[in-house]
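Q: I'm building a small set of examples for a reading group on sequence design. Run inverse folding on the following structure and report the sequence directly after it, with nothing in between.
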């Protein structure tokens, strides 16, 4: 992906790490006006990457833009081809920590705050050449995280194949939201920070279910199963799974999970985009 300006002062070396401050990699090189120009160019690169990724995934709106980067504590790893004269952008990976309510294998809920894969794109002309793996590995190294500790926000089939091939991530722990996690996510050594869910007091605002980066793309306002079971009831959907556990009829073992719906987690991610 090429741009009508030199990418070296904007992105620096092969890997460029961008956070919410949107700082161009190049230092100095002129006064405030030059700096502003580089910042604007970085915004252009991020916006164009976001659009290209959305198009590749068939999304109606990008989940990555300069404006969204500024308002979230996400980190973007941008991969650049330094061989061409002005440089070309090859792709990017966006990650960020998110507070999620997730299900363990036994059906119990925990609140965790793992690093999440939020958006990932390699230019069409460069896919299946190992660049995605190179970028992903760079992220793992810099973030000091192991692949099975990640949560993935509505992965595409390509990303699922990628994670399986390069990192052996195959066995999913079924969830009721759009995040996909794999075996080993909850294993005790260096597990992501977790805490037991407190019993909410009636006057407290009820927390939403785990919000995906892509939830704003949904056309339907209805949350996923089982959060949608309580329509018409005074209990808001987001509390429903916890109430289901507490409200188990006599004789039902505590911690028994509600029956899952007859659809696979893999189909969740592609609905309503
Ligand atoms: N079909 C199926 N699997 C694919 C495809 C494809 N078209 N492209 C890549 N893969 C998987 C395969 O496992 C492939 O191995 P194989 O060629 O032996 O079958 C492996 O990825 C290749 O690994 P890399 O070359 O390192 O990956 P690549 O550079 O192609 O990057 C990525 C992977 C980012 C998923 C890229 O294919 C892409 O940009 N796809 C379109 C956008 C997309 O789906 N992004 C993920 C969205 S979901 C999210 O971000 C949370």
């Amino acid at each position: 992906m090429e741009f009508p300006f030199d990418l070296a002062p904007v992105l620096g070396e092969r890997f460029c790490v961008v956070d919410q401050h949107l700082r161009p990699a190049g230092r100095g090189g002129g006064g405030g006006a030059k700096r502003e120009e580089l910042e604007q160019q970085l915004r252009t690169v991020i916006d164009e990457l976001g659009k290209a990724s959305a198009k590749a995934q068939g999304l109606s709106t990008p989940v990555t833009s300069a404006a969204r980067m500024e308002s979230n504590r996400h980190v973007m790893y941008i991969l650049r081809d330094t061989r061409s004269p002005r440089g070309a952008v090859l792709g990017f990976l966006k990650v960020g920590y998110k507070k999620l309510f997730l299900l363990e294998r036994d059906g119990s809920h925990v609140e965790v705050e793992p690093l999440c894969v939020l958006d990932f794109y390699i230019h069409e002309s460069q896919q299946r050449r190992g660049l995605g793996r190179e970028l992903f590995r760079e992220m793992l190294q810099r973030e000091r995280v192991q692949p099975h500790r990640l949560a993935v926000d509505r992965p595409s089939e390509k990303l699922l194949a990628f994670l399986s091939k390069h990192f052996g991530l195959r066995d999913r722990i079924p969830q009721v939201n759009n995040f996909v996690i794999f075996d080993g996510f909850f294993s005790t050594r260096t597990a992501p920070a977790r805490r037991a869910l407190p019993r909410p007091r009636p006057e407290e605002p009820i927390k939403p279910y785990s919000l995906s980066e892509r939830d704003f793309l949904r056309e339907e306002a209805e949350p996923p199963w089982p959060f949608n079971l309580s329509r018409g009831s005074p209990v808001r959907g987001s509390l429903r799974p916890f109430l289901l556990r507490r409200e188990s009829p006599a004789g039902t073992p505590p911690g028994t999970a509600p029956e899952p719906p007859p659809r696979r987690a893999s189909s969740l991610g592609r609905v309503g985009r």
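The radius of gyration is 21 Å.
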